[in-house]
Specification:
By secondary structure, this protein is an alpha+beta fold. The chain is built from 13 helices and 12 strands. It folds into 4 domains: 99 residues, Alpha-Beta Plaits (2-Layer Sandwich); 60 residues, MutS, DNA mismatch repair protein, domain I; 58 residues, DNA polymerase, domain 1; 102 residues, Dna Ligase, domain 1 (2-Layer Sandwich), CATH 3.30.1490.100. Strands 5-6-1-7-8 form a 5-stranded mixed sheet. Strand 2 and strand 3 form a beta hairpin. Helix 4 runs antiparallel to helix 5, helix 10 packs across helix 11 and helix 12 crosses helix 13. The chain is globular. It starts with a strand and ends in a 12-residue tail after the last strand.
């Protein structure tokens, strides 16, 4: 398999700098007003030199770089540009697996151009994005999704890294475990505690040892460390959840305000379900308190949620009885659904008396 992972460079910020030439070369932060509670969606590379990164509070970004230009997101524009990028991908291959607006996997083993070298195709894609959209992308080329994605991040911005099959084991051996798919801080800490810090360390342990430490995910990591990744490039994946959330300008204590916001978000979630033609069995409420402590509370129902009343009542009950929203100030509130049920599929009915 020949895989290219294409990742746009500082996508939102780069679109803003392209559309507003006066912003080029300046530190640009796409997100909320620095006087508000907004967070950074993305930052230009000029802003990143000051340690500004995605999800950072805009107030902190302003503290680090007072001369930064803060601009509100223009999602409609980013979506439109994302579609143009996707169209370029589909001229190369039908096997395009989007991960977000600004990144995707492409399986170019067989491609519309009849080009045998994946590197040549990556150069072609990058050049077209630059010529047609005046934006830069970084690309990684490898024999699997894991290798291609890691490679695309090595020489940003405007980078291209190719890892041929014969170099995979050597390449993986030097990677820190934090670079491995789905290894977050907690998993990394457990690995570090037993002396595992690199791909070579993972490979030196048996799959059984890692399975005992991390469950089935441990065996998967061992496979990656040995250069094995059988995941295919999948053109479309059904989302596993749909949700909506809101960050308040000021902390909220009034339950009435929280419940009204929850209802508005539930309506948005239902509209998303309608487009998917699905119902969902699990309802989750997310609450972030004024000290940034964040909790989620979920409930799985016997049948799929497909109407406003059921979703509203379930979310409200979780908020009122499973959180401290009535006694602690709330900074953010959200609702999501998961456990999708196909409308034409079987539905589990509740048993009598249950």
């Amino acid at each position: 398999m020949k895989v290219i992972h294409v990742d746009m460079d500082a996508f939102y910020a780069s679109v803003e700098q392209r559309d507003r030439p006066e912003l080029r070369g300046r530190p640009v932060v796409v997100g909320g007003d620095p006087r508000s509670r907004g967070v950074v969606a993305t930052a230009s590379y000029e802003a990143r030199r000051f340690g500004i990164h995605s999800a950072m509070p805009c107030r902190e970004a302003y503290r680090r770089c007072p001369e930064a230009v803060f601009v509100p997101p223009r999602m409609a524009q980013y979506v439109a540009v994302g579609r143009q990028i996707r169209a370029i991908f589909h001229e190369i291959t039908d096997l395009v697996e989007p991960l977000s607006l600004d990144e995707a996997y492409l399986d170019v083993t067989d491609n519309h151009l009849g080009e045998p070298l994946a590197r040549t195709l990556a150069v072609h894609i990058k050049a077209r994005i630059k010529a047609e959209l005046d934006l830069t992308a970084s690309a990684g080329v490898g024999p699997s999704k894991f290798i291609a994605k890691i490679a695309s991040d090595l020489r940003k911005p405007d980078g291209l890294v190719v890892i041929p099959p014969e170099r995979v084991e050597e390449f993986v051996a030097t990677l820190r475990v934090e670079k491995f798919w789905s290894v977050g801080p907690a998993t990394a800490k457990r690995l570090h505690a037993v002396g595992i810090r690199t791909g070579a360390d993972l490979r030196a342990r048996s799959a059984e040892e890692l399975r005992a430490l991390l469950g089935k995910h441990g065996a998967f990591l061992h496979g990656l460390a040995c250069g094995k990744d059988e995941r295919r490039v999948t053109p479309w994946r059904e989302p596993k959840s749909k949700g909506s959330e809101r960050t308040f300008a000021e902390d909220v204590r009034e339950l009435r305000v929280l419940l009204e916001s929850l209802d508005e978000q539930a309506e948005r979630v239902l509209r998303s379900l309608d487009k998917l033609e699905r119902t969902a069995r699990t309802v989750t409420v997310k609450v972030r308190y004024d000290d940034f402590t964040t909790i989620t509370r979920s409930r799985t129902l016997a049948t799929g949620v497909g109407d406003a009343r059921t979703l509203h009542e379930t979310a409200a009950d979780l908020l009122l009885h499973a959180t401290e929203a009535a006694t602690r100030p709330v900074r953010l509130i959200g609702v999501s659904v998961s456990g999708f049920v196909h409308d034409d599929g079987p539905t589990q009915l509740p048993l009598p008396g249950v």
